[in-house]
């Protein structure tokens, strides 16, 4: 199956040419065969599993560069965790931070 991406619809892809890139691949990529919730989880353990799922993907670098150009607000993209449009080492858990982290 071929996927045609219009460079006018994908920010950052229309840098030099107006010809739409064509990628041919099947939809057995790791992110297409896994529950998508894991890539947008609030659990650090699940996010680490999602990063591991991205490891062998042949489109990992393209996924990461696309997510960076789009400033993806959240999720695991190209094996990296995004929060507020930037790559982060770990995602801050939802809710108010503890006043005394040592009291956990």
UniProtKB/TrEMBL annotation:
One of its GO terms (molecular function) is protein-disulfide reductase [NAD(P)H] activity. Pfam families: Whib (PF02467). One of its GO terms (biological process) is cell redox homeostasis. This is Unannotated protein. Belongs to the WhiB family. The keyword Cytoplasm does not apply. Residues 30-87 form the 4Fe-4S Wbl-type domain. Keywords: 4Fe-4S, Disulfide bond, DNA-binding, Iron, Iron-sulfur, Metal-binding, Transcription, Transcription regulation. InterPro entries: 4FE4S_WBL (IPR034768), Whib (IPR003482). Its cofactor is [4Fe-4S] cluster.
């Amino acid at each position: 199956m071929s996927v045609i991406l219009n460079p006018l619809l994908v920010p950052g892809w229309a840098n030099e040419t107006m010809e739409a890139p064509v990628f041919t691949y099947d939809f057995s990529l790791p992110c297409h065969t896994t529950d998508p919730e894991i890539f947008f989880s609030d659990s650090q353990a699940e996010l680490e599993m999602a990063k591991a799922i991205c490891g062998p993907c042949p489109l990992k670098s393209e996924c990461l560069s696309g997510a960076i150009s789009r400033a993806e607000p959240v999720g695991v993209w190209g094996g990296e965790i995004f929060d507020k449009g930037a790559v982060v080492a770990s995602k801050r858990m939802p809710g108010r931070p503890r006043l005394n982290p040592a009291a956990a």
